Amino acid sequence: MNLHDRIHQHFAASRVAQQDTLDLLAGNIELAAQKLAACLLTDGKLLCCGNGGSAAEAQHLSSELLNRFERERPGLPAIALTCDSSTLTSIANDYSYDEVFAKQVRALGHGGDVLVVYTTSGNSRSILSAVTSAHDRDMSVVALSGKDGGPLAPLLRESDIEIRVPSESTARIQEVHLLVTHCLCDLVDQQLFGE
Ligand SMILES: O=C(CO)[C@@H](O)[C@H](O)[C@H](O)[C@H](O)COP(=O)(O)O
Ligand SMILES: [Zn+2]
């Protein structure tokens, strides 16, 4: 296939992944936005994490909340657990990489906070540990995932929300995660600050 055709193929596949996700998961996205707004309205905060491209997505969400999304409004409390290299390297060095987010969740998380995890596979052990720590702290979880949900899916509780993008492609899942993230930001602003 030539380069031009490959570009068309990428855009077409991304559109399909977006539409499939809308058809399947609009209700879950709405529920997740309601959970995040309820958390923020009761003085809770969001802790966000992911690996690789998903680390960038976690930081994208926290920065839209801490700073602003599309309108002028006060900053909202969200922390990306992916940013402090001293903390990340020391936890990985002294314990294991699997603990890099979980230890921060145990230190920073309180009941009523929400952990937002991004993982395209549901396989990343650092994410599984973070979810277990969040449950230990009486936090609930919003999981943006994909593929078959991996071992993350059965770990989630009834009160958690999974937004599992129906695709097998890491790149496509990440692209849809970003769109879902922007939806969540807009729906949070709408619930907290109105039109
Ligand atoms: O961005 C990409 C590929 O698009 C990669 O960096 C990818 O995020 C990394 O391989 C991650 O470690 C994958 O983790 P996960 O999504 O399976 O939890
Ligand atoms: Zn990527």
Summarize the structure in short.
The protein is built from seven helices and five strands.
Can you walk me through this structure?
- Its cofactor is Zn(2+).
- Belongs to the SIS family. GmhA subfamily.
- One of its GO terms (cellular component) is cytoplasm.
- This is Phosphoheptose isomerase.
- With 195 residues, this protein is of the alpha/beta class.
- The chain has a 5-stranded parallel sheet, sandwiched between helices.
- Helix 1 runs parallel beside helix 7, helix 2 packs parallel to helix 7 and helix 4 runs parallel beside helix 5.
- The longest helix is centred in the first third of the chain and has 39 residues.
- It starts with a helix and ends with a helix.
- The mean pLDDT is 98.
- The site of zinc ion (ZN) has 3 residues, from helix 7.
- The site of D-altro-hept-2-ulose 7-phosphate has 13 residues, from helix 2 and helix 7.
Descriptive key words:
binds D-altro-hept-2-ulose 7-phosphate, binds zinc ion, 195 residues, alpha/beta, Rossmann fold, 5-stranded parallel beta sheet, 56% helix
SSE inventory with pairings:
Blueprint: H1 3-41, E1 46-50, H2 53-66, E2 78-80, H3 85-94, H4 102-108, E3 114-118, H5 125-136, E4 140-146, H6 152-155, E5 161-165, H7 170-193
Parallel strand pairs: 1-2, 1-3, 3-4, 4-5
Bound molecules: D-altro-hept-2-ulose 7-phosphate (I22) and zinc ion (ZN).
